[in-house]
C-alpha cells in the first residue's frame, strides 16, 4: 500500500469491537441486560431481570448469552486502561429450575476459556430444591473457577451492601432509570455507524491506488483531447468518491454527533444521556468526526495533486485559445479602424469635442477593453506559470506586442484630439477675458 493510503487509513482506523453485534432477538428479548451500571468494585453489571427470566431457556441459548456478555465487556474495555471483569446480578427468589440451571451453566461457560466474572450477586431461591440445585451447579471453592466470587443474599435490600442503589433498577431496590427499548435503539444506531465506518476503511486503499493510477496517465497534447481527458477523469473521480462513501459517512457521523450534543432531539439519545456508554460514545464520535474530516480532505488533496498538471495544462491551453481570439480582434481593430483613421484638426471647440467623443466611442473604448483582456491573460499566465527567464511561447509575445501597439496607437490619437480640444478651450477663455478687459 502506498504511503498516502496508509496515512489516510490509519487516520480513520480505530474501530469498533471485533465481536459482531448480538442478534436482534437476543438484544430485543431483555432477558440479559448491560445497563451501564457498576458494583462497588467498579465492575460493569450484567443483570438477568426477573420479568424476562422465562425467555432465557425458551428464546435464547447459553452461547448467545455468553456472546452478548463478551460483546459488551469488549465494548466497555475499549475505553479502559486496564481490562475489567463483569459482575452478575440475578434475583432467583422465584426462579424455575430450568432458569437456575441456564444462568449457572452460562456463567460456567463464560469462565471456560478465561476469567470474565468478578462477582455473582444472587438473591437465593425460596424453594429448597431450587437452592439445592443452585449450590450444586455453582463451582466449589477448589475448582478452577474459584476466583469467581459468589455473594448469596436472602433479600433484595441486601444488594445495596455491595452495589450502590443508584446503580440498581427499581426491581432490584434501586433508582437507576433504564429503558431497554431506548438502549437497544441506541446500540443499534451506533453499531450501524461503526459498520459503515469499517466498510469505508476497507475500500479506502483501493480508492487511493486508483487515484495514483489516474495520476500517472500521460497527458494529451491537444486542447480538445486534454479537455476530454479532464472531464472524463473528473467523472471517474466523482464515481470513485461516491463508491467509497466517505462523504456519506461524514454526513452520518455529523448526524450522530448532533444527536449526542442535543440528546433531547431523539428519544433513545435522551434516555441514554448521562450514562457511561453515552459519554464514551460521545468521545469516540467526536474523534471519528475529526478522523473522517481529515480523510475527506486527504482524498481531495490527493485528487488535486494527481491532476494538478492536467488542470494547469488545460488552463494554459484555455488562456492560449483566449489569447489567439484577442490577438485576432486586435489585428482586426488595427487594420479596419486605426490604420485608415486620419486625425482631423478641428477648427473650433465644438468640433474638437465631437471628434474626441466619436473616437472614444468607436475606437478607444473597444480598444481599451481588448487591452484589459490581454493584460488579464498575461497576468493570469504569470500567476499559474511564473516566468523563469527562458523564452516564452510565441503567442504570449505576440499578444504583448500587439497589446502595446494598440495601446500606444490609441493613446497617441486620443492625446492629439484632446490637445486640439484643450487648445480651443484655452483660446476661447483667453479671448473672452480679453474682450471683458
Strand runs, count: 4
The CATH topology assignment of the largest domain is Phosphatidylinositol Transfer Protein Sec14p
Shape: rod-shaped
Report the uncertain regions. 1-8
Query: What are the secondary-structure elements, in order, as H or E?
Result: HHEHHEHEHEHHHHHHHH
The structural domain count equals 3
The CATH fourth-level homologous superfamily of the largest domain: CRAL-TRIO lipid binding domain
Helix content, binned percent: 55-70%
Observed structural traits:
65% helix; disordered N terminus; Methane Monooxygenase Hydroxylase, Chain G, domain 1
Question: What does it look like?
Answer:
The chain has three domains: 34-177, 3-Layer(aba) Sandwich (Phosphatidylinositol Transfer Protein Sec14p), CATH 3.40.525.10; 182-306, no CATH class; 312-436, Methane Monooxygenase Hydroxylase, Chain G, domain 1. Helix content is 65%, strand content 5%. The chain has helices at 3-11, 24-29, 54-59, 62-77, 97-110, 128-137, 180-215, 223-244, 246-261, 267-272, 276-306, 308-338, 349-384, 394-436, and strands spanning 45-48, 86-91, 117-123, 149-153. It has a four-stranded parallel β-sheet, covered by helices on one side. Strand 2 (86-91), helix 5 and strand 3 (117-123) form a beta-alpha-beta unit. Helix 1 (3-11) runs antiparallel to helix 7 (180-215), helix 1 (3-11) runs antiparallel to helix 11 (276-306) and helix 8 packs antiparallel against helix 12 (308-338). Residues 1-8 have low confidence and may be disordered.
Amino acid at each position: 500500500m502506498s504511503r498516502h493510503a496508509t496515512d489516510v487509513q490509519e487516520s480513520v482506523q480505530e474501530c469498533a469491537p471485533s465481536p459482531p453485534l448480538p442478534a436482534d432477538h437476543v438484544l430485543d428479548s431483555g432477558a440479559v441486560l448491560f445497563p451501564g451500571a457498576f458494583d462497588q468494585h467498579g465492575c460493569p453489571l450484567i443483570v438477568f431481570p426477573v420479568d424476562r427470566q422465562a425467555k432465557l431457556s425458551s428464546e435464547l441459548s447459553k452461547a448467545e448469552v455468553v456472546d452478548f456478555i463478551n460483546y459488551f465487556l469488549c465494548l466497555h474495555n475499549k475505553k479502559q486502561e486496564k481490562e475489567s471483569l463483569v459482575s452478575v446480578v440475578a434475583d432467583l427468589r422465584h426462579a424455575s429450575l430450568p432458569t437456575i440451571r441456564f444462568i449457572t451453566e452460562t456463567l460456567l461457560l463464560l469462565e471456560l476459556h478465561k476469567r470474565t466474572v468478578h462477582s455473582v450477586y444472587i438473591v437465593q431461591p425460596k424453594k429448597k430444591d431450587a437452592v439445592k440445585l443452585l449450590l450444586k451447579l455453582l463451582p466449589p471453592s477448589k475448582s478452577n473457577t474459584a476466583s469467581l466470587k459468589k455473594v448469596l443474599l436472602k433479600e433484595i435490600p441486601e444488594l445495596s451492601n455491595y452495589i450502590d442503589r443508584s446503580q440498581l433498577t427499581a426491581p432490584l431496590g434501586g433508582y437507576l432509570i433504564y429503558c431497554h427499548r431506548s438502549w437497544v435503539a441506541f446500540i443499534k444506531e451506533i453499531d450501524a455507524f461503526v459498520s459503515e465506518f469499517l466498510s469505508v476503511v476497507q475500500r479506502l486503499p483501493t480508492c487511493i491506488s486508483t487515484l495514483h493510477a489516474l495520476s500517472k496517465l500521460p497527458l494529451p497534447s491537444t486542447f480538445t483531447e486534454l479537455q476530454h481527458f479532464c472531464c472524463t477523469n473528473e467523472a471517474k473521480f466523482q464515481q470513485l468518491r461516491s463508491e467509497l462513501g466517505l462523504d456519506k459517512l461524514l454526513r452520518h457521523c455529523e448526524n450522530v454527533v448532533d444527536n449526542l450534543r442535543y440528546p433531547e432531539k431523539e428519544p433513545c439519545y435522551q434516555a441514554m444521556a448521562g450514562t457511561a456508554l453515552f459519554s464514551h460514545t460521545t468521545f469516540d464520535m467526536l474523534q471519528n468526526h475529526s478522523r473522517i474530516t481529515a480523510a475527506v480532505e486527504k482524498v481531495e488533496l490527493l485528487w488535486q495533486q494527481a491532476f494538478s498538471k492536467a488542470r494547469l495544462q488545460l488552463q494554459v491551453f484555455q488562456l492560449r485559445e483566449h489569447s489567439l481570439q484577442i490577438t485576432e480582434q486586435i489585428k482586426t481593430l488595427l487594420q479596419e479602424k486605426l490604420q485608415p483613421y486620419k486625425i482631423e484638426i478641428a477648427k473650433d471647440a465644438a468640433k474638437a469635442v465631437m471628434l474626441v467623443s466619436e473616437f472614444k466611442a468607436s475606437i478607444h473604448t473597444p480598444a481599451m477593453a481588448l487591452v484589459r483582456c490581454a493584460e488579464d491573460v498575461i497576468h493570469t499566465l504569470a500567476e499559474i506559470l511564473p516566468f523563469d527567464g527562458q523564452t516564452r511561447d510565441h503567442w504570449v509575445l505576440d499578444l504583448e506586442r500587439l497589446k502595446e501597439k494598440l495601446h500606444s496607437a490609441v493613446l497617441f490619437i486620443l492625446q492629439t484630439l484632446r490637445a486640439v480640444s484643450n487648445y480651443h478651450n484655452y483660446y476661447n477663455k483667453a479671448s473672452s477675458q480679453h474682450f471683458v478687459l
